[in-house]
Amino acid sequence: MKFFRARMMAPVVLAILQVAPLCKAQNAPAAQSSAPRAPQDPASSSPANAQPQSPAPSGKVIFSRSTDENGQITTQVGPAATQPTIEMAKEPTAEDTDRQAVTFTALDLDVHLRTSAHQIAVRAVVTVRNDGKTPLARIPLQISSSLNWEQIRVAGRNVSFPVATLNSDADHTGQLHEAAIPLAQPLAPGATLRLDVVYSGSIVPNAQRLVTIGTPEDLALHSDWDEISPSFTGLRGFGDVVWYPVSSVPVILGDGSRLFDEIGRHKLFLSVAHFRLRLAVEFPHGNPPTVAIVNGVPAPLTVTDAQGLGPDIDGIATTTADSPALGFVAPSLFVAVRKAHPSDHLAAWTIPDDEVSVQSWIDAASTVAPFVQGWLGKAPRTQLTLLDLPDPDDAPFETGALLATTLHDVAADRLSGVLVHSLTHAYTQSATEPSPGWLNEGLATFMESLWIEKRRGRDQALEMLEVNRPALALAEPSSPGASAGEPLALAIAPVYYRTKAAYVFWMLRDLTSDEALRAALQAYVGASSEATQLAANGTTNSAAASLQRLLKQAGATRDLAWFFSDWIDADKGLPDLTIDSVFPNAAQAGTYLVAVNVTNAGYAAAYVPVTVRTAKNFVTERVFVPARGHVVERLVVIGPPTQVQLNDGTVPETQASVHVTDIGPAPSDQPIPSSGSTSSSSEQPPPQ
């Protein structure tokens, strides 16, 4: 009966998908399996090998499959050809310099899921560029260790290659299968190459990497929940499950922040890649998937169930996705059986257990939407999607405008902050107009802090940022000469593209005004094609240039060139401010003139508030403190001054972001000292 099922369904699958392989799933190492027959020459009629700009091809079947009485699947790809040799190597032959030199400029994937068997089969055409300084004699490609390489073609010909098992926690299994593809001619620096690859296997929840470091298995499985199943398929990508080809340096959990930095590096180097996906999903009869989400963006499903052919014959669901630039995300794929709950501000997809609870999420979104709209505009680039995870204890996951989490009842106060953050992503991300990581993540964190300011006050909002400031100070270079740091456009660490970027928006708010920043952000969201086109062409600071121009158009009168230079375009570390001394002098009619000497020992300039308090009132002025310099700010107050404060937490510093000096009784002609280092640089006026 299984053989009959395969013979009946294969024409349906192939006619719809055109190029969707279901290769023989392998549990043994690739060297012990029988490799599939070779595909046609990529230069001929293979649609997966067309250039990303070409239209989708039509109609030519290049894959076929059959199932025997034992349920084993055999795949044939194109006409008969010499089968390649795949050797399981005892140790990797590629080196880290090879892995770091490979940059993907295009991913063209034909993906076939057989959900009842937890299987995935992929034919991928990947375009890589050598960004190293020397020619590459081999190209290292990696996939999850639960998947197996079956075939690789270069220039239309099969190649033999070794496969090594690489220990790396970039995948939930803790290992990768790395193919080191030999090249007949070394790939010169700056040159590109297309590779036609086939691989397959099964993906089930696997928490090996977390169990290895001592995490209880139940807790670990709620973190590493990626799987393929009839009711839910969730593949989060590099850092969770490597379901598409990558080239990465091996990293392990517990080795500082190296894993998270490598995840950020992966996202950054893929951000301008062209991504195309053609998906076919086999599902049990009568249980079709209702939602598919690719890279955080919903993709419409075309469903063909096997009506009248018997209860054991699978149906097929297909979809396509095409992004000219991937953006700062790891490619992800979700396919699930869920019930839709559309609303004005989001689309929620739930399991039956959460159909009632989801209303609280919809209500919370309606509550915070006017606030988000007031800052970012009426219309987001895409709609926020909420996807209900299978288990209430599963760890949430966010990518683009998708929030995958359990949609059970949550306190309204907690939900509001989460939804402000997620709704902001809907304004900055879309399939065709992705924003750079620092603007996408930094703006979402900034908006979340503004919501806290609105609900609980400014001090609470700044405390939210202060939690991560020490980590930022630790990561920043002590001087521009000590290391290059991470300019925001090239940032790979969350402490930069999330924490520092949020501070940047707070400082821009103080440098301009709420009105100017609102207008600039709304203009950026509403007319982003210029920045997007520049990003697609590899201009990494295009978003910053666009934002600077829009701020000026919105009425910002100050010169912001220094700020974008010190805080966005380059990484000059953090300022290191000190109240060097205070000179209070009695003036006429009970007033006092207080001179505050401020020193900046850091290499980044700062625009910070200086506040002088008396027993009954206070006066605040903002002062520009140049890098490696000092400035004297004079403030007039009514009554004897009691305290001076420098910075209020809006400008991150190396040591602390609030400095307070108490003023006791002292002769008016004597300075009141304050601890801190001084600089010999001369005073400079603030930019106007």
What is the level 1 CATH name of the largest domain? Mainly Beta
Strand order of the largest sheet: 8-7-11-5-4-13-17-16
Radius of gyration: 29 Å
Largest sheet: 8 strands, mixed
Mean pLDDT: 84
Kindly summarize this structure in a few lines.
The chain has 688 residues and is of the alpha+beta class.
Describe the structure.
This protein is an alpha+beta fold and 688 residues long. It has 4 domains: 2-337, Immunoglobulin-like (Sandwich); 341-428, 2-Layer Sandwich (Zincin-like); 437-569, Neutral Protease, domain 2, CATH 1.10.390; 577-673, Immunoglobulin-like. The protein is 26% helix and 30% strand. The strands form 7 sheets. Strands 8-7-11-5-4-13-17-16 form an 8-stranded mixed beta sheet. A 5-stranded mixed beta sheet has the order 19-20-21-23-22. A hairpin with a 7-residue loop joins strand 9 (161-167) and strand 10. Helix 6 (358-376) packs across helix 7, helix 8 runs antiparallel to helix 9 and helix 8 crosses helix 11 (494-511). The radius of gyration is 29 Å and the shape is globular.
